[in-house]
Each structure stands twice: as structure tokens, then as C-alpha cells.
């Protein structure tokens, strides 16, 4: 695919030189995210079996002018799609050159046709030119600067939520652990699996969390809150471009009583500050959801997110748990015994992305 003096090519992420060039391009851009990195695509592929693809718009000099990371999602239940990026809340084309955006979008369409894939989903980034549909209003993003110190951070939390947080801070039984140890990884998965089961959502394979930690190295870690020896809240966080990005987090049923989720994110803000992060990126939530309301009550203002899609048939795959088609299944899932949910959940979740 050619666009004036730009050529679009598929990078070989198994080639260390090409993967490093892509990593450096993403690291050098303000609009680059962890979900644009080869590290993310490789982690997804190795943990879930969904193929990692990276399209690059390249100048005659060999300089990368734009990237489009893609995950080829395959599921018997949910169909196929090329997603940028799979299992992520962001992605899409990363470039400031409209020609590169157009060329990458067209190349993605060609790739979809070659692979027999009906649709493409871009979670952020500029709109490619051509037959792409803009989707706005379904999701909100939440981020704000990390305060200068713990006291300023506490005061940045609105009064009602701050009172809840103070209760957790005053609880001598609650304490925090941060790191990348096997014990923390196990405890995180135990807490996260219970949390998503209670929401009616299948849990991702445990291998996914291990692969993300392995691929990202020091750019990812786990913070967990314990009541004595019992893990009650835990979150896996990514660090990129001065942003702390809590990504997979949750709490057990007792977390609400203990206010341990409030404590977890407050301590994570301090941990992010100590790591030199300037922004706390709380990620996305569905518009009108309880999760969105909770983040707003924590002092984060919502910003509408824009996605783009293309489909050969005009239809998108439906993976929205709020869809009427899934409501009965969600309610049934909430009632499953946790061992059963953890056994069959990963088989389903690896196709959601």
C-alpha cells in the first residue's frame, strides 16, 4: 500500500530490530500509549493465542511515520475482528501525518479482507479517511495530575469520598504491598477473579497478567491491600510517558466495607509520584455506569472518548456486557461458584478482547 512517499508494511515483531524501532517510535510520541507497544501485542498473543500484527507507515529513509497495532481476535462466540488494541482501552493509529493515517486505515481494510475478517475496531487515535464510522458517547476517560504530596492528594478527593478514605487510612489492619513477586501475582489474580465474577464478567487467563508483567518489565507492577494476611484489593498498573495507568484492578466482597479500593488507589497515586509519574490515568468506564460515577466521586472529571470502526457488512461485533443480548447471561454468571467461573471464564474471555 503506497501513499505518496509513504509505504505501509507489516513489521515482524519477532525481529528485535523492528520491534525496537516500533517501541522507540511509540516512546517518542505524546499520543503513544502502552497499548501501541509491541510489548502489549506480544503479551496478548502469547497469553491468548490471538495473533499480533503491526502495520507501519514508513518513509523512503526508513523512518517510521505512523503505526497501527492490531490484534486479530477470534472467537466462536463473538466472531472475528481486527482490534487496536486487543484487551486495551486505547490504541488506534498513532501519527500526526494525515497521509499516514489514511494509508494505515486502507492497509488495515485490505488486511481484514485478506484474512476474512468482517470488521475493524480502533480504540482512539485519528480517524482514517474513507468509510469509517465514528462512535462517541459510549465510554468516558478519567485522568488528572498527581498531587505534590500525600496530604495534597487527600485534599484533592471530594469531601464525601475523602471521609471514606480516611476510615481506611485509620484501619490498622490494612496495609499495602507493591511489587512483581509470584505471591503478589497470585493474590492479584485471586482478588481480580472474584471481583469480575461478582460483576458478571468472565475472568481473563492468568497467563495474560503474567505475560504483561514479563513483557513490560519495570514498566508494570502490582499493588495490593491486605487485611492482615488476606488480600482484599489489588491492581496491575502500567507506567508510560509519565502516566500511572491502573488497568486490571478490583476488590473482594469485603472491599466495600473496608474501603480498601479507596485506599488502594490513594496509595497507588503516592507510588506513582515516587516513580516520577505526573498523571494518574484512571482509564475508561462506560457512560452512566457505577464505575464512572465512582471515579467522578474520587475527583476525576470525565472526558468522552471517540472510537472508529469499519465493517465490510456494516455491522460490528457485540461484546458489550450491557447489551440486552447478554443481560441474562451476566446475571447467571454472577451466581456461579468462583472455582467454576475461574475454570471456564478464561476460555470465553480470551475471545472478548
Automatic annotation (TrEMBL):
The record's NCBIfam families line, in alphabetical order, gives:
pepcterm_femAB (TIGR03019)
Query: What is the designated name of this protein?
Result: FemAB
- Give the species: Sphingobium quisquiliarum P25
Q: Outline the extent of the BioF2-like acetyltransferase domain.
A: 159-296
The cross-references to InterPro entries, in alphabetical order and at most eight, read: Acyl_CoA_acyltransferase, BioF2-like_GNAT_dom, PEP-CTERM_FemAB-rel
Amino acid at each position: 500500500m503506497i501513499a505518496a512517499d509513504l509505504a505501509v508494511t507489516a513489521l515482524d515483531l519477532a525481529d528485535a530490530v523492528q520491534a525496537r524501532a516500533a517501541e522507540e517510535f511509540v516512546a517518542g510520541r505524546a499520543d503513544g500509549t502502552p497499548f501501541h507497544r509491541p510489548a502489549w501485542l506480544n503479551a496478548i498473543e502469547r497469553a491468548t493465542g490471538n495473533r499480533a500484527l503491526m502495520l507501519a507507515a514508513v518513509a523512503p529513509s526508513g523512518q517510521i511515520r505512523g503505526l497501527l497495532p492490531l490484534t486479530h481476535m477470534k472467537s466462536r462466540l463473538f466472531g472475528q475482528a481486527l482490534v487496536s488494541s486487543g484487551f486495551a482501552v486505547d490504541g488506534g493509529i498513532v501519527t500526526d501525518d494525515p497521509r499516514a493515517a489514511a494509508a494505515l486505515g486502507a492497509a488495515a481494510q485490505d488486511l481484514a479482507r485478506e484474512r476474512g475478517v468482517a470488521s475493524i475496531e480502533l480504540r482512539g487515535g485519528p480517524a482514517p479517511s474513507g468509510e469509517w464510522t465514528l462512535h462517541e458517547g459510549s465510554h468516558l476517560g478519567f485522568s488528572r495530575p498527581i498531587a505534590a504530596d500525600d496530604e495534597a492528594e487527600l485534599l484533592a478527593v471530594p469531601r464525601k469520598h475523602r471521609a471514606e478514605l480516611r476510615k481506611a487510612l485509620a484501619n490498622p489492619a490494612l496495609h499495602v504491598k507493591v511489587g512483581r513477586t509470584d505471591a503478589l501475582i497470585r493474590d492479584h489474580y485471586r482478588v481480580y477473579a472474584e471481583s469480575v465474577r461478582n460483576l458478571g464478567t468472565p475472568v481473563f487467563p492468568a497467563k495474560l497478567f503474567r505475560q504483561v508483567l514479563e513483557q513490560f518489565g519495570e514498566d508494570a507492577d502490582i499493588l495490593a491491600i491486605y487485611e492482615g494476611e488476606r488480600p482484599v484489593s489489588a491492581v496491575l498498573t502500567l507506567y508510560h510517558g509519565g502516566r500511572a495507568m491502573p488497568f486490571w484492578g478490583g476488590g473482594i466482597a469485603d472491599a466495600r466495607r473496608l474501603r480498601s479500593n479507596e485506599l488502594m488507589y490513594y496509595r497507588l497515586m503516592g507510588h506513582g509520584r515516587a516513580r516520577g509519574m505526573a498523571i494518574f490515568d484512571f482509564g475508561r468506564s462506560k457512560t452512566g455506569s457505577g464505575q464512572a460515577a465512582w471515579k467522578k466521586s474520587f475527583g476525576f472529571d470525565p472526558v468522552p472518548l471517540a472510537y472508529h470502526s469499519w465493517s465490510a457488512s456494516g455491522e460490528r461485533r457485540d461484546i458489550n456486557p450491557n447489551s440486552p443480548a447478554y443481560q441474562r447471561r451476566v446475571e447467571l454468571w454472577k451466581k456461579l461458584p468462583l472455582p467454576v467461573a475461574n475454570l471456564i471464564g478464561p476460555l470465553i474471555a480470551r475471545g472478548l478482547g
